[in-house]
Specification:
303 residues; 2 domains; 13 helices; 2% strand; globular
Length: 303
């Protein structure tokens, strides 16, 4: 409701693409407003839109007359491929780096990981993406007897599916996103792990003669993952929205780029469809996090 109200107050409204056409007259605009119901009060417009959404109709794009559902479903696989790879890689490395950093607290290993984490958190995404393109695509990286030249844009080089080619196109955008998520995940994991390894039950397990590895991995990591699960649950909506900046820079045909294009043309139906789907994934992300709590912590029970 809030999103609909905000978008309805934007200058030009959903008819912005038509207003830029010099061949469209004021009479044509008035007729379009009447046909689309835009001449009615905003609450009435919202009720009509909501009634259509309940029936599974999110409307059609005003820029190319494409169905909103078809536009989203067409670009969702590319976004899932990119975001799934980036978040999965960042989660695995973030947990490992967080554990190592906590165990090696105040050693050079901890300082290196912490420095890299702060570097990742403060790095502007657009700048880092452009630097990777310059280093590995425009100029090509030469070192250790190898010359690396990766694709700078797109999801593939041709129309036919080639796994090797898709992986080459995935490396740069996934690396940019993975660094951003990795920085946060490793910091949360380190903080949580430090709190856990100083707990009484960890000291009790060590006093029983268990090895350091068993104490940390079996008793410590599982409980330390609980706060991280909350953070990962909050990143689930990012999968829907995609990485807007990253997908735009690398010309990745995903939902983030679709959102930017729809925003530039004020494609009302597409914008509302993407944001409603993102809101749904907020709920699903929190639900999955709650389910993971019960698996990680036996004290959590659901009735």
């Amino acid at each position: 409701m809030i999103l609909f109200g905000v978008l309805s107050q934007a200058p030009g409204g959903p008819l912005t693409p038509y207003l830029q056409n010099p061949h469209i007259t004021e009479a044509d605009i008035a007729r379009l407003k009447h046909n689309l119901g835009l001449d009615q009060p905003v609450p009435i417009q919202y009720l009509h839109w909501l009634g259509n959404v309940v029936r599974g109709d999110f409307g059609y794009s005003t820029s190319n007359s494409e169905s909103t559902i078809d536009a989203i479903l067409e670009r969702m696989p590319a976004t899932l491929e990119l975001m799934g790879t980036a978040i999965g890689l960042a989660l695995i490395l973030g947990v490992i780096f967080g554990i190592v950093s906590a165990i090696k607290q105040y050693t050079w290993v901890d300082y290196v990981i912490t420095t890299l984490a702060f570097f990742g958190q403060s790095m502007p995404v657009f700048w880092f993406a452009l630097m990777l393109q310059l280093l590995f695509s425009v100029n090509g990286f030469t070192g250790f007897g190898y010359h690396i030249a990766l694709p700078s844009a797109g999801i593939s080089s041709g129309d036919t599916f080639d796994l090797g080619d898709r992986l080459e196109h995935l490396i740069l955008p996934a690396s940019v996103l993975a660094l951003i998520y990795l920085a946060g995940f490793s910091r949360y994991m380190r903080s949580s792990m430090l709190e856990v390894i100083h707990s009484d039950y960890i000291r009790t397990a060590s006093a029983k003669g268990l090895s350091r590895f068993v104490v940390v991995m079996k008793h410590g990591v599982r409980n330390a993952l609980i706060p991280l699960v909350t953070i990962v649950g909050l990143t689930v909506p990012d999968i829907v929205g995609g990485a807007v900046v990253t997908e735009t820079i690398f010309a990745w045909p995903g939902m983030g780029r679709l959102f930017i294009n729809a925003l530039g043309q004020f494609d009302f139906a597409v914008l509302m469809g993407i944001m409603c789907l993102a809101a749904l994934f907020v709920v699903l992300g929190n639900l999955l996090a709650d389910m993971c709590y019960a698996w990680l912590d036996p004290r959590v029970k659901y009735s």
